[in-house]
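pipeline/complex-builder :: batch 7 item 3
reading input block
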Amino acid sequence: MNISMAITRMPAARGIIMLDDFFFRALLAGIGLALTTGPLGCFVVWRRMAYFGDTIAHSALLGVALSLLLDINLLVSVFGVAVVVSLLLLVLQKRQALSADALLGILSHSTLAIGLVMVAFMSWVRIDLIAFLFGDILAVTPADIALIWGGGLFVLAALVVLWRPLIASTVSADIAEAEGLKPERARLLFMLLMALVIAIAMKIVGIMLITALLIIPAATARRFSSAPEGMAVLSSLIGVIAVVGGLFGSLTYDTPSGPSIVVAALILFILSLLPGRAKNLADGGTTSGGRS
Amino acid sequence: MLMQTAAQDRQKGDELVTLAGAGIRRNGRWLVRGVDLSIHRGEIVTLIGPNGAGKSTTAKMAIGVLRADEGKVDRKASLTIGYVPQKLAIDWTMPLSVRRLMRLTAKLDDASLMAALTDVGIPHLVDAEVRHLSGGEFQRALLARAIARNPDLLVLDEPVQGVDFAGESALYELIRTIRNKTGCGILLISHDLHMVMADTDTVICLNGHVCCRGTPEAVSRSDDYRRLFGNVGAGLAVYSHRHDHTHLPDGRVQHKDGSVTDHCHPDDGHHHEHAGHGHEHHDDDHSHEHQHGDHTHAGGKGHHHA
């Protein structure tokens, strides 16, 4: 049996009875998530926001604690905390008292710690911390799947709308501002999308591993891409391969599912570094089809 | 008379951007202050000045990248701007071809895209990755991107950096052609006065504030310019105007008489010759000399600007 089963928070009775069924649900959820994190992860890599992603993910535990304390919806609570932390970061960065990475370090670890302390105080609730930290994809319900695909499609649609301002401000915020693309607004909306995806993804791969799913597929796609649009699509596909490979590996070798997905993504990344298989980047005219 | 009317029309009607007493303050320090300038349709305005003089800051203020902390900035409604920034660091993790760079902020058809690249002399690099370009090639690509927008106002922050001498003349020729063909206004930042001389309508010399201004002919007949021209290639010495004050490293200003103030705003009593004693003159000869001559300020704090 799979180890992940043992740490399932709410054993889904039907899932255990019908093995195929829970595995299929996990696949569906993971694929939906990977499709969303691909393009988003590209921006995380291009804009050097990996640590930001980590910080938002860590703050999710505070969201979990608040959700239990105030008896509000988990997703709403996690998203709310993520938004507050993002805005706090924007404000603190403007004041320039500390460097961005020091601020991120403070916010990241203090929100995680406050969350853990709060959970410890709430002796009346019993939660499976491991499931929140490392994910529990095998426990996803049909409602979760609906949320992942609904939220994912929303995020992808928003990215399509914001694509040009986001790309332009990634290349040069000054050019984007001068030529009327409002890079600050694009950046804020991008942060909100990140917060939303992290809130959705927490249940699947867990707080500690979300950033991996954002960054590793994007980094893997880099070598085979000659346009930002191509890289976004490719990192989605690579993420899907990592999810499928990781889940099958988890089933075969009886390993936890979230970490298995990350390991699968890492294997793909290492393979991408092997010499001789990348197409020549210099003559890249072929994949610039995404432009409009 | 007709000529005069035309000139007046340009003065009044066609301002693309107007700055009035505009300044930017950061961390309690004025980067640039008291800037008055306007750019008209079809006019080339060149900003010169030493490093840290506020040239880029002034340009960014004019196009709305930075908001002025004092004074006023008026831009014509629905102004199309083409901007070539001084520095641009693209993370190598983003795959970006020249073709894609050209479509960074707006859609662009292939014909116009190639035409702009041909204008700047790099049509063969259309599918090259941006990070593999040399400094000069990258600069040309950025210029092509800006002109392909058919801007009303083209803002070029040291557009010829990294370009060799022959290419430099060609690019200045191109900038002039663009102006003549499209009638756009151009704000050019340069620390190379002699190259832009022939094509520039107005030269504005900045050093934390507007030090002097005038037509290139006017400036070139001034002692200051002769000194500039004689010292081309000597780095900062190029900008050795006879300043009546020195900008200290901490941002304060030391005046000729040894007094130190926090800034050199035109109204602070130290610089009446900047604000008052005409830098607006474009035609007459005698007044171009940017002299900070012997005179005592009656209204100021009584410093001598010897």
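note: Residues 142-171 of chain A form the longest helix (30 residues).
queue -> next item
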